[in-house]
Design a protein that fits this description.
Elements (H helix, E strand, L loop, with lengths): L7 H24 L6 H31 L5 H10 L1 H5 L2 H16 L4
Helix pairs in contact: 1-2, 2-3, 2-5
């Protein structure tokens, strides 16, 4: 049985799921350390998500370059960056929650 080519929508779903798993694991793991506040978790999660996103973009650009047998244009590189963006976007809800939590701690309105 031959695999069918995946559409860009399928790729976006896969990247979103990957990003969700990454962010959830980071938040859960870092939350276990009671010495780390919400601000540090937010910074750690954001930094890690960006590093993973860059790694995915790099891998995608290299694989496309090998397949094409030439260097990619800036437009093609930009397209690869955009295609990997769902991995970052998956972390937005957690980032908002951590940001709200950070704001509550700073303003003394911890609920």
């Amino acid at each position: 049985m031959e695999a069918t080519p995946r559409s860009s929508d399928t790729h976006a779903v896969a990247r979103t799921i990957y990003g969700t798993i990454l962010i959830t694991a980071l938040v859960a793991g870092l939350s276990e350390d009671h010495g780390i506040d919400a601000w540090r978790i937010l910074v750690s999660v954001t930094g890690t998500a960006i590093v993973f996103w860059l790694a995915h973009v790099y891998a995608e650009v290299l694989s496309q370059r090998l397949a094409a047998g030439r260097s990619l244009s800036w437009a093609e590189t930009g397209k690869a960056m955009g295609e990997e963006l769902p991995m970052i976007q998956a972390g937005i809800p957690a980032g908002i929650a951590l940001g709200v939590r950070t704001g509550q701690v700073v303003s003394g309105q911890l609920v």
